[in-house]
Amino acid sequence: MIEKENPVDIWEAARIAEARVVKKNIFINAARQNNSREAAMEEKLNDLSKKIDELCIKDKRRCYNCNKFGHIASNCRSRNWKPTQRRTFDKHEQSAERRYPQRPRYNSPAYVKGRVNGVDMDIMVDSGAATSIIRYDLVSSISRACQNDSVNFKINVANDSSLNIVGIIQLSVLLDNTEFLHTFLISDNLFCECILGMDFLVKYDAIINLRFNFLDMGSIKIPIIPHTKTRGMISSTVKTDEIDNKLININNSLPLSLKLKVFELINSFHDIFSKNEYDLGRCSWVSHKINTESSSPIKQNPRPIPIHTRDLVKQKLHTMMEMGIIRRSSSAWGSPLVIVPKKDGGIRLCVDYRKLNEITVTDAQPIPRIDTILDSLYGACYFTTLDMSSGYWQIAMNDQDIEKT
């Protein structure tokens, strides 16, 4: 490289070489400075990236694309979209899907093919029915040897029609070559041949699989046969015209035949049972007296009623007036109304009669002792407890003392 410069002598060649060394050092230093600047810039970028990540973590949003915090998938920089995975079924589901038809689009009751005491029939499976029922005309043709307890009552179904229950029978049900023994109610106007209700489903751990349309009974699976004809469905709420059976609570250990006899007995005297809080009786042979002798009338200012309960109070007072529990008054006596909230969100109307009680002459009727009551039960076989519904409303006030309340 020095020869290309054509130096005159050795000293000129030395100056050229020295200049080249200086120039080379300048380039080297410049390169080193550039490298250090790049390193510093890279370090600053790394610090900035860390700070951005720290700020993004504070943002609770998470990207389901890159699985990082601080942004959502639509703003994701990665854009590494994964293909949508199709849901896979296990072998049992695949075999069930091939074997059983999918549930039809229309809403229809579920039926299964079965045999009841040797007679083939389409059996409705109804999880809304509390008990299993069979039609009366089929019972006589199935078996005369089966026990038929004579009963007579009615139950309502979801379409507001009623079924006449005329007896009970125990029958053998054959489903997919498996026999089940079960007790049925007998109805003379059932809209189908036979119904398997919740009592059967619970007893034999049966599950209605609506996805693949079969009745799953563990080891066996019975295909469901849809019926397109609209029919009545048994309601889970069992009622009669006389009294709502939901109000009757009978021990589950009692046999079904005795339960039905209890229902029949209670329905025979339905008029003495309260069906709601305003369905009250009235004692006719005694009235309540408030003896205040010559005391002056007690009058207290009414307590403020919260705004959010005023409509409920008006509704309660209106209903009580319609039912004859209270009436309008223009008396010199006055006790404040007290609003007591219920657990279900409703309210109970009470009256603060403490001032009235202070001037009332006490009727010192002794209350029986517990041991005396227990002694009176000696030798008894049946023990009955009667609870009066709103008993303080069932005893009328004496006409002369009504104004005090």
TrEMBL record:
PANTHER family reported for this sequence: PROTEIN CBG26694 (PTHR37984), PROTEIN NYNRIN-LIKE (PTHR37984:SF5)
InterPro entries: DNA/RNA_pol_sf, Peptidase_aspartic_dom_sf, Retrovirus_Pol_polyprotein, Rev_trsase/Diguanyl_cyclase, RT_dom, Znf_CCHC, Znf_CCHC_sf
Region (Disordered): 83-104
Biased composition (Basic and acidic residues): 87-100
UniProt protein name: Retrovirus-related Pol polyprotein from transposon opus (Trinotate prediction)
CDD domains named in the record: retropepsin_like, RT_LTR
Species: Henneguya salminicola
Tree of life domain: Eukaryota
